[in-house]
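ok so i was messing around last nite and threw this chain in just to see what happens. nothing serious, just curious
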Amino acid sequence: MSSSSAEPPLDEDVTTEAPLNTAQEQPEPPMSKNKLKKLRRDQKWEEGRERRKELRKVKAKEKKGRKRVAQNNHGPSDSTSEKRKASVEPEAPAAKKPKTSKPVQLPVSFVIDCNFDDLMRDNERTSLASQLTRSYSENHKAPFKSHLFVSSFGGLLKQRFDTVLAGHHHNWKGVKFLEGDFEAAASDAADLMKTDRGGRLAGAFQKTEDEQDAEATSTSGEIVYLTSDSPETLIELKPYSTYIIGGIVDKNRHKGICYKRAMDRGVRTAKLPIGDYMRMASRFVLATNHVVEIMLRWLEMGDWAKAFVEVIPQRKGGVLKDAMTSLDKAPEDTTHNEEADCEAVEKDQEENTIQGNDVDKLGVTELAAEAPEQGEEHPP
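result:
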């Protein structure tokens, strides 16, 4: 073979260098301001570690010195002596909490007539469900409670109680849900009030012995449908009587429907005496649970004025007439102000949406979205 075809000899001194890693040569990105602050803070903390350690030692020595001086001057510390006394003397029994008085059942009945299911919208039906819940809650915890009935209970209202509210109403005590109308409920109430479970005369029904004996012989009572359209004003609640409240939320679309329903059945009607005691800025709207609460307060105190003041929110402009004597105001305008009514109802919704959760203690849940709206109206 020729020498020109031979391979050149390897040069051992020649070395091949690896390609440069351009990524390693790139400078690191600058630190953010937050990272720099954190780094400085950590460094400062580390620098002060020894100083903090010395301070802890000094404080521990000072504490031991004070304790030693106290023991030399006054003997064992108060805490040590208290522990010794506690080990020798038995602990005194804890003071018992005062027992709350048990609610007194009175011989009087409230019937909420719910025969208006097809006249309400979904949101109004939701509000009525909340009003029924709050009515039960108020009656359940009242010092003087009534028998409570819910008549004509069916349709979409009952469906809501069975589904959304998980059927908790089946566990309610002292309330009866009936498919029959308010007359059937009033008949059941009259029979119940004549039994041993009917209740006793107490609270506002507390009378002299002679009056009690006279009323005990007459337990017939009366049936009254409460409606603001009635020309008659309710003076007082009477024992062994049944008072019917219209369970409807309609924002005044079906005005006078409760009065017409009662008149068609030949049932006596009456309105709460709000106008006899309070001065209102506009026609007042009461939710169903407000009517129940007012009558429960009257059963407790026997005073309409106090009952109205306790239940009616002050923001709605209701003022006792006795408190208005020093004010020079124009005569009250009793014309219906729908805009004011709606505004009051919306405020009620916000308030009762929050308060509705309180009845969870009674076994009722999922009420945050249910707010009482306008029910039967009771003008001043």
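not much to say yet. The radius of gyration is 39 Å.
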